[in-house]
Amino acid sequence: MSLKPKEVNFDVTWKKLSITIKNVLQMDPVRHDVWTECFSDVYSLCVAFPESLAEKLYDEVKQLLSDHVANLYNQVSAAGEESILIIYHTHWMQFNKGAKYLDSLFSYLNVQHIQKQRFSEADQKYGHITMDINEQHMEIGELAFEIWKEEFIKLLKERLVLVLLSCIKADRLNKGLVAPVHIVKGVILSFVEVCNFKKKNTYVLYESVFEELLLQQTAEFYRGESIALLQELTPSQYMTRVIARKEEEKMRCAKFLPPSCHVKLEKKVHVELVEKHMTMLHGECGKLVAGERVEDLANMYVLLKPIKDALKPLVSCIQEHIKQQGLQAVHQLSGENMATQFVENLLAVHAKYSGLVAEMFNRDHQFQEALHRAFESVVNSKMSRNFPKSPEIIAKYCDTLLKKSTKGLSEGEVDDKLTHCITIFKYVEDKDVFQKFYSRHLAKRLIHQQSVSMDLEESMINKLKSACGYEFTSKLHRMFTDMTLSESQNQKFSEFLKDNKLSLDTNFAINILQAGAWPLGTTSLGFSMALPLELEKPLQYFEKFYHSSFNGRKLTWLHHLSQGELKCCFTSRTYIITMVSYHVVIMLLFQKTDSMKLSELTEATKFTSDGFSRFLQPLLDSKLLVTDSKELTDDSVISLNLKYSNKRFKFRIAMAQVKEQQQQEVAAAHSSVEEDRKMYLQAAIVRIMKTRKLARHTDLVQEVISQSKGRFAPQVPMIKKCIELLLDKQYIERSNSNHDEYKYVA
Amino acid sequence: MKVKIKKWTGVGTWSYKVDYDNCGICRQPFHGCCPYCKWPGETCPVVWGQCTHCFHIHCMAKWLKAQEPREQCPLCRQKWRYA
Predict the structure, then answer these.
(1) Does A584 sit within 8 Å of B5, measured CB to CB?
(2) Each residue of A169-221: pLDDT tens digit?
(3) Which domains does chain A have, with CATH numbers?
(4) What is the pLDDT of residue A657?
(5) Nearest by CB to B11, which of A511, A516, A588?
(6) Phi, psi for B13 (deg, rounded to 5)
(7) Does the beta-carbon distance from B6 to A507 stay under 8 Å?
(8) Residue A622 — very low, low, confident or very high, per pLDDT cuts 50/70/90?
(9) In this complex, do A567 and B41 lie within 8 Å of one another by their Cβ atoms?
């Protein structure tokens, strides 16, 4: 066969061709050689001599398809409602396949004649098209589908859609369908497939013919159902039912509908079942939360989640609930282990609700935030006036854990508890207050060697560091450094003694602290005493040693913090008693005598502080010393209790901690916090001004607040005061042009 | 001996033996640190000259570098010698 154009008899060739086309459209068998020959027929028609017959061929094919479709339409429309879907589907499947074969059969025509004369997309968009687009020729496949669409679907759509919708409704009601599922789906998809040749808007037909009505019907159906359900079910049952219904509907979508439609349909269902009843659901929130009905709340979450802002009332309910629970847990705590109770109760509440948030709300961040906000308000709530504030309590809790005691917890357990404690600590606004108290407790533990273990102390400080940053713990670190330095000093001191052939009777150790780095109370001022020779001598040696190694430093002894271990041999058993140094001093006075007058005691110790009896009291309380009179006066006789006995042979006499002294210390801590805050705020202001050079008052205040958030929540009047201070000190000045602005003075 | 000290742990604080509180160069207190340091203590010591004046060691080092080659005490203008 030659490809050369030649004269062709159109009618003869077309007759041959049309038979094959009909066979293909009806899916009748076509012999292979006939099929192959058709291609050359199409070719020869297209390139026919003297004039191409392509145009004619196109018209003939169009006519043929049109006739075929009309024929099919008549068959289908004659069918009854029960069978119409099945018949339509069979014909459609056949036509669909046939059309695709035809398209490939006519590919030469498509490529050479039709595509060439078509407008490109750019032409359509930007060019001035004079010709109507619809007048254009289409490729044969597209043509076939277009004919199907125009001359079949458009005519039959009302009937088809009605049957389809009734099928879907029947499925919703769990009734039998008039046609098998795959046929229903096939028919629905035919609305989409028939547009497949179009490059865009494939779904337009489907949407206009079917989807719109489907959505409308769905809305009506579920509107009715929700009203019926609400009348017979409780809200919690309703929610369960709705979730099940939605799940079914999702399956149904997959069963019948093209993917593009799923979201729309589900949304419609959600609107009818949930969104329209939102007020009812929101009204239910309070009850469910109060009863902590986990399942119902989880359902509520699932239902409200997809709707924008619908969770808000639930979130605020939960937040309020957790807050109330938290407040209740720490309400009216008192007694010795109040701190422990406070922290552990809060932790229990926290653990419970973070568990619930995970379980009910899938760790939704809105709810986690609600949990955090609730705890922030619990931890920072102002309790009654005499009740210590939370940072103080938490610091105390840490102290009880880290102090040597007989609680019998292993190191690991204590460490775990401290880790949990950080959870609560993170909610504290006034972290600087915590730091103040914590450092005081730490100082006492270090000086009195009461820490359970240095590893634990270290790990706690690291925890605080990771929670609040390096600056927060630097002071605590410096205290540790001093302790290690002191240790090496003590070693050097004993070498120094050896080198100078000096010897001490007592086991002597010194802690040398850097003044200013330690939060040592001011309560020691105005107190001094005469040291007995046993102590005076080693101290003098030490001072000599210290000055020889550190030029230009002076030492100040803090005897109210030092302590000693006494071996008491005046009783039948020997006791080893740990006590603070002024008790040691008093006890040493009884070396030569068994009893003494109070005035003699005062004379001998040269206690400058008034209220000598205050220092004496713990010794009397412990029954190491006894007195003959009830009221202590200068003439009272104090004597050693020679019959003293105690079950334990090693113990400690607590320091005289008078209540008002304690209160003083707390007040001192608070006022020093106040001072530190002022410094911190001023530093922050200077920092900000240094970078900005010019700042408006409100901006400056905002920035300061955000910078200090990690440490404490500053009050605006205090910030103002600090700004005024800096104005006075001429770090900043008011801007000339704008009174509301500050300028940094370099 | 009726009572005997078995062990004693003393506590004391150290501070610089200075006649005035602030460093003459940076005007910051001696118990604080010089402007170049972050924390006071062993890392930011005080240094004395033979003229008895004292400064933060870092402040003095910077001052002397600026004064080269005639190194004087900023307070009394005598030749600076470390005590």
Answers:
(1) yes
(2) 888 888 877 778 888 888 888 888 888 777 667 788 888 888 888 888 888 89
(3) 10-116+137-156 (1.20.1310.10), 390-549 (1.20.1310.10), 563-657 (3.30.230.130), 661-744 (1.10.10.10)
(4) 61
(5) A511
(6) -120, 150
(7) yes
(8) confident
(9) no
Residue A391 preceded by cis peptide, ω within 30: no
DSSP states along A389-442: PHHHHHHHHHHHHHB--S----HHHHHHHHHHHHHHHTT-S-HHHHHHHHHHHH
Helices (H), A469-549: 470-499, 533-549
Pair A461, A479: CB distance under 8 Å:
no
In the predicted model, what is the mean pLDDT of residues A265-283? 85
Give burial (CB, 10 Å; 0-12/13-18/19+) of B32. middle
Report the percentage of chain A scoring pLDDT > 90.
3
Measured torsion, CA atoms of residues A274, A280, A286, A288, in degrees rounded to the nearest 10 = -60
Q: Do A513 and B13 touch (CB under 8 A)?
A: yes
Q: Which pair of structure tokens corresponds to residue A242?
A: 């709705």
Helix (H) or strand (E) holding A643: none
DSSP A294-324: HHHHHHHHHHHTTSTTTTHHHHHHHHHHHHH
Interface test mutation site (partner B, options A448, A556, A641, max chain B beta carbons within 10 A): A556
Q: Which of A527, A581, A582, A649 to mutate to test the interface with B (most CBs of B within 10 A)?
A: A581
Parallel, antiparallel or unpaired: strands A595-597 and A625-627: unpaired
Answer whether A514 sits within 8 Å of B11, measured CB to CB.
Answer: no
pLDDT in the model for residue A53? 80
Q: What is the mean pLDDT of residues A102-117?
A: 80
Alpha carbon distances (Å) from A106 to A29, A66, A145, A584, A648: 19, 17, 15, 116, 111
- Pairwise pLDDT comparison (A85 vs A506), residue with the higher score: A85
Domain topology for B19-83: Herpes Virus-1 (3.30.40)
Q: Sign of dihedral through CA atoms A617, A623, A624, A629? A: positive
Distance (Å, whole) CA B21 – CA B27: 9
Residue of A nearest to B3 (CA): A568
- Rounded to whole angstroms, the Cα distance separating A425 from A464 reads 9
Residues near A578 by beta carbon (within 8 Å), at least 6 away in sequence: A563, A564, A565, A566, A650, A651, A652, A653
Surface-to-core class of residue B47, CB atoms within 10 Å of its CB (0-12 exposed, 13-18 middle, 19+ buried): middle
| Predicted local confidence at residue A384, as pLDDT | 59
Cβ-Cβ contacts under 8 Å, B18 against chain A: 552
CA distance B21 to chain A (A): 13
Cα A216 from Cα A222, distance rounded (Å): 10
Question: Average pLDDT of chain A?
Answer: 83
From A566, which residue of chain B is nearest by alpha-carbon distance?
B5
pLDDT band at A167 (very low <50, low <70, confident <90, very high): confident
Q: What one-character DSSP code corresponds to residue A7?
A: B
| Cα gap A420→A243, rounded to integer Å | 38
B27 CB within 8 Å of a chain A CB: no
| A441 and A479 Cβ atoms separated by less than 8 Å | no
**Cβ contact A302:A329 at 8 Å:** no
pLDDT tens, position by position, A28-64: 888 888 888 888 888 888 888 777 788 888 888 888 8
How far apart CA A571 and CA A331 sit, in angstroms, is 49
CB contact under 8 A, A556 and B9: no
Dist CA A316 CA A289 (whole Å): 10
pLDDT at A111 over 70: yes
Please state the ipTM of this predicted complex.
0.83
| pLDDT tens string A331-388 | 777 777 788 888 888 899 999 999 988 888 888 888 899 999 998 888 888 765 556 6
Please indicate whether residue A121 or residue A660 has the higher confidence score (pLDDT): A660
B40 touching A, CB under 8 A?
yes
Contact (CB<8Å) A569/B3:
yes
